[in-house]
Amino acid sequence: MGGGEASEVRTARRRRLRPAERQGLHTIAALGAAAGAVTTSAAPTGWGPADVLLSAALISGASLASVRSDPRTWWVLCGIGTAAAVPSQWAVVGALGLALLVVDLAAARSLPLLGAAAVACGATTLLHVPTDLPFPLPSVVGVLAVAPLLGSALARARTSERRVARRAAAAVGALALACTVGLAVSVVTARSHILAATDLATDATAALEAGDADVAAARFDEAAERFASAERLLRAPWTQPARLVPVVGQHARALRTASSAGVDLATAAATASGEADLDRLQIDDGTVDLVALRSFAPATGRALEALTDAEHSVASVRSPWLLPTVGDPLAALAAEIDDLLPTTRRAHEAVRLAPALLGGDGERRYLLAFANPAEARHQGGFIGAFGELTAVDGHLELTRAAPIEELISAPGADDRFLQMPRSYHVRYDRYRPAYFLQNLTASPDLPTNAEAMRQLYPQTGGGRIDGVVYVDPAGLAALLALTGPVTPAGSSEPIDATTVEDFLLRRQYLEFATDSARADRLTDVARAAFDALTGRELPSPGTIADVLGPAAAGGHLLFAPFDDDAAALLEEVDARGSMPATPDGGDLVSLRTANDNPSKIDAFLHRSLDYDARWNPDTGAVEATATITLRNDAPDGGLPAYVIGNGNDDPPGTNRMVVGLYSALGVRSATLDGAPVAVEPQRELGLHVTSVPVVVPAGGTVVLELELTGTVDPRVPYVVAVAHQPTVTDDDVSVAVTAATGRTSVRGSLPGAEGSRWRGAPDRLLTVTAERS
After folding, report:
1. Rounded to 5 degrees, what are φ and ψ at 626?
2. What Å distances lie between residue 625 and 91, 170, 636, 642, CA to CA?
3. Which of 379, 357, 519 is nearest to 452 (CA)?
4. Considering 52, 210, 419, 510, which has the largest number of Cβ atoms within 10 A of its Cβ?
5. 469/551 Cα distance (integer angstroms)
6. Beta bridge partners of 770
7. Tell me: the pLDDT tens digits for 272-283?
8. How much is the average pLDDT of 316-337?
């Protein structure tokens, strides 16, 4: 038989199967159906049993139809299925089908069972098309792959077979239409309830943000009722058959799930708003009602559980089969849940942990470190005074406050010792922090400094402490915004939130002649502020959080507890004072300066950091230039020596400092005012640290330039975190990113991005994300 005749016979495929071949065909169809039922990841209806049956029917039906269809349609099905399944391992099954077709093509005589097996493999790949393809692409892929085979089989079937197929298709279509109509009626009716419930929930959230918990609870209750009405309509008996209809079933399930999740969320939110209204918690005379505080935990726990369940429910019904009119709102609901979950979890953790922190399980004692950035240390400012805050059964009391000299001069000063990580001793032993306790803010990381304080405070005669509170003048201003004005001992004029920073940073050094008098001023102001905090009626917890949150984010008011769970919670809300971790995307930079005069001259220091990164998105290689400009606005006379003087015989107004640049990248070279300068490369907190001593004359400006190099993860966008040192004047910062290939655009966690550059004066942690366009 010639090649043309063989091709003609292959194309026709009309010979009757022998009994053994027919039995083999049925076996292949049955095995394919079983494999599809067990392994399918397709969810055309979203209802497990129906999806299993449809998957099994697809493979068995395609296998049976193959003996009637044009062999060229086998190639279409296997080719499309294999391509669509890439890059999953199921593409290998499709490739096996194609290999079987090659064998069939090479055979002297067509092998119908080989073709059926190949089609079964190709149909199996269609059940594993990637689920992240946009709607309606999965459906289109399936139709393009299967339609030619089924159409060819129908065209080649006997007249009686075509008649049965048409009647069956008409019956199935009519049934699917009837099922769809039943659902559509309920959807149209339920839609108004869902929209109304969504609006009510939005109003409730706004009421919560405004502090009106009663209105929020009422709105959430109404939203729950509306969601429940929608859910009842969508679960009515006449909607159930729609679960069997591909695509329609997905939408039915998604709508029911969204309505059910809405009921649970709104109900939990209403309960939490009514039962766990923290703003009703009274804080008076330094006392928190721990019984009331503990009573909030069940409600916040239920809200957290409802959110978690809703997250899982919504995730389970999101599908590329959904039309945008259903899929987009579902995605918005998922995003809303993602936003609410961490907030709710933190609220629950706060309610759970706060009683113990407030002395509910026994006395807690916290060391207060009052710092002043007019004489800078890497964390912020030197410690000028200290205090001890005691918590017993929810009652807070300032039991001790004194200048730091009282601890420095305590008996046994020469015998005090620290057992810290080697990197700490390498960097800071030169400052003798065990003796000069004002240097215990030497590290930029408060938990590190707090551990040093925990070791040293008992060695000065103090007792065991359970954590450290760091407060600088901006932090005291935030506290006075809550308490109102105070009049420190020995003062005739009150100090309030608008005047305390200027007084502690500048005026006290001009008004009081001796070091001890100035130290007493800091002590007196701090004592007056904390006495007011623990002795007056305070606003609601929500107001307290709104006032103190920015101070914590800026590093002015921080709390480093030694309780691990509480520390983790404070870390999440940026109130623990840790050096931030290097972000995904790989880069971090932090400019730190420490006064080396000593004097209070840093009140006149202005700093700027220009960070220009050259990034290769393909390899992750980064080269960066950090240009640090230091301007000293101090006068060369007219102020006391303890303000603008120094212990180095420099002219008055000269500012000596140690500049430290913390970076995820290593330093390659450095120049100071254009001339090469030696640097001291070290490691701390998992980062490279480059330290350079710098002298800036009165009225002068110095420029330090560092060349850095390193590698970041090329699989993700490039991210630069700029960690903030709380100084008297916020830094001017510029971050620019240039890609080796293509253009870049940046976005920042704070406003200031334009094109490929971010510019501003961040008062907290800044992250800048660059992407290649």
Report:
1. -105, 110
2. 47, 72, 32, 36
3. 379
4. 52
5. 13
6. 718, 746
7. 665 555 666 778
8. 67
Instruction: List the structure tokens of 598.
Output: 């000593």
- The 3-state secondary structure of 637-667 reads CCCCHHHHCCCCCCCCCCEEEEEEEEECCEE
Helix ranges (H only) for 210-296 are 213-234, 248-275, 290-295
- Residue 193 tokens read as 């309830």
Strands of 422-502, DSSP E: 467-471
- Sorting pLDDT into bands at 50, 70 and 90, what band is 8? very low
Residue-wise pLDDT for 173-203, tens only, equals: 776 677 677 667 777 677 777 777 777 777 7
pLDDT > 80? residue 15: no
Query: Which residues are registered as beta bridge partners of 358?
Result: none
* Nearest-angstrom CA–CA distance, 268 and 298: 11
8 Å CB contact between 578 and 446: yes
Tell me which residue of 251, 244, 227 sits closest to 318, measured CA to CA.
251
Distance of CA 366 to the CA centre of its chain: 30
Strands 287-288 and 680-684: unpaired
Q: Is the pLDDT of residue 6 over 50?
A: no
Q: Give the sign of the dihedral formed by CA 152, CA 157, CA 161, CA 167.
A: positive
Q: Is 30 exposed, middle or buried (0-12, 13-18, 19+ CB in 10 A)?
A: middle
Neighbours of 341 (CB within 10 A): 15
- Measure the CA–CA gap between 740 and 621, rounded to whole angstroms: 10
Reading the block at residue 167, the tokens are: 């009647």
Residues 6+ apart with CB under 8 A from 555: 379, 380, 577, 724, 725, 726, 764
Tell me, what's the pLDDT at 12?
A: 39
For residues 376 and 591, the answer to whether their CB atoms sit within 8 Å is no
DSSP 271-331: HHHHH--GGG--EETTEE-HHHHHHTHHHHHHHHHHHHHHHHHHHHH--TTS-HHHHHHHH
Specify the DSSP element, H or E, that contains 366.
Answer: strand 364-376
The CA dihedral of 419, 423, 427, 428, to the nearest 10 degrees, is -20
Q: Percent of the chain at pLDDT above 70?
A: 87
Q: pTM for the whole thing? A: 0.76
Please report how many Cα atoms fall inside a 13 Å half-sphere around the Cα of residue 352, on the Cβ side: 15
Residue 151 has a pLDDT of 86
Write the pLDDT tens digit of every residue in 647-703.
888 999 999 999 999 999 999 999 999 999 988 889 999 999 999 999 999 999 999
- Cα 358–Cα 360–Cα 361 angle in degrees, nearest 5: 120
Q: Can you tell me the mean pLDDT for 44-67? A: 81
Q: Does the pLDDT of residue 601 top 80, yes or no?
A: yes
State residue 278's pLDDT score: 60
**What's the chain's length in residues?**
773
The predicted-structure confidence for 114-156, as pLDDT tens digits, reads as follows 888 988 898 888 888 776 666 567 777 878 888 898 888 888 8
Nearest residue to 478 via CA among 574, 543, 573, 385? 543
Q: Are 303 and 114 in contact (CB under 8 A)?
A: no
Let me know: does 653 contact 697? Beta carbons within 8 Å.
Answer: yes
Measure the CA–CA gap between 573 and 346, rounded to whole angstroms: 9
Find out whether 247 and 139 touch, Cβ atoms under 8 Å.
Answer: yes
The span from the CA of 81 to the CA of 59, in Å, is 12
